[in-house]
Design a protein that fits this description.
Pfam families: HTH_IclR, IclR_C
GO molecular function, one term: DNA-binding transcription factor activity
Mean pLDDT: 90
Number of domains: 2
Radius of gyration: 23 Å
CATH class of the largest domain: Alpha Beta
Distance between the termini: 32 Å
GO biological process, one term: negative regulation of DNA-templated transcription
Keywords: DNA-binding, Transcription, Transcription regulation
Number of helices: 9
Structural class: alpha+beta
Protein name: IclR family transcriptional regulator
CATH architecture of the largest domain: 2-Layer Sandwich
Order of helices and strands: HHHEEHHEEEHHHEEEH
Strand order of the largest sheet: 5-4-3-8-7-6
Length: about 250
């Protein structure tokens, strides 16, 4: 039984190994696995019965079945952002010694769903569940900037933003999407600063943002490049952990 499972999974790995080759012939699979054609045929028949492999009726070649998509989407839905992100946030907080937030979109607002506090005595204090308009602050703008344009326009309309403010935000969004991170200083609370990067999921959909938050006096020009590098790397780690594909 274990040998059959190992062989079946080897076939699946081959079928998904090359994004430019979606279908494989039975002889090709036999060559790749060093198994007899009859063995490959038997394994493929079983995989097809369970929806894990499908055959092109025209070419008779094989490819992965749609059941994998169903399984993958269910796994993605079951992932707890906070559980997945927490260890990475803790490492980041220890590394930069500042407070780390995880934000997600909640309609036209951003909401803080996880916090790792800075070990320093002077630090930014935030409360879990805090809701702030997506147009304010680096953590929220890192999400806003990677939404679809029509969704951003809906948010602007809901917040009844004047034309001048919309144009200002669009310029900021262009800079953020180009750089891959957002920076803010004193937008919500005077004397505070933040640098944030987006967290992506399946199909490069923005799902959240992770941010480094500190008193403005610790956001020096000399230190900022390092903070940007660290937060972008943490965001990438979380993205891969919750389902973003390479």
């Amino acid at each position: 039984m274990i040998q059959a499972i190992d062989r079946a999974m080897h076939i699946i790995q081959i079928l998904i190994s090359n994004p430019h080759k979606r279908e494989w012939g039975i002889t090709e699979l036999a060559e790749q696995t060093d198994l007899a054609v009859s063995t490959i045929h038997r394994l493929l028949s079983s995989l097809m019965e369970h929806g894990l492999v499908m055959q092109n009726p025209g070419t008779k070649y094989y490819r992965v079945g749609f059941l994998w998509m169903q399984i993958g989407l269910q796994v993605l839905d079951s992932i707890d952002f906070r559980t997945a992100a927490r260890p990475i946030m803790e490492n980041l907080a220890m590394d930069v010694e500042e407070s780390i937030y995880l934000n997600i979109q909640d309609g036209s607002h951003g909401i803080t769903i996880e916090i790792v506090d800075s070990p320093q005595k002077v630090r930014i204090a935030e409360t879990l569940g805090t809701r702030i308009p997506l147009t304010i602050g680096a953590p929220n703008k890192a999400i806003l900037s990677f939404l679809k344009e029509d969704e951003r326009d809906q948010i602007f309309n809901k917040q009844e933003l004047p034309v001048e403010k919309r144009e200002e935000l669009r310029l900021q969004i262009a800079e953020i999407t180009s750089a891959g991170y957002a920076i803010s200083e004193g937008e919500r609370t005077k004397g505070t600063a933040s640098v944030s990067a987006p967290v992506f999921g399946y199909a490069d959909k923005v799902l959240a943002s992770v941010s480094i938050n500190a008193p403005s006096f610790r956001f020096t020009k000399d230190r900022l490049p390092l903070l940007i590098e660290k937060v972008k790397y943490a965001a990438q780690e979380i993205s891969l952990k919750i389902g973003k594909f390479h």
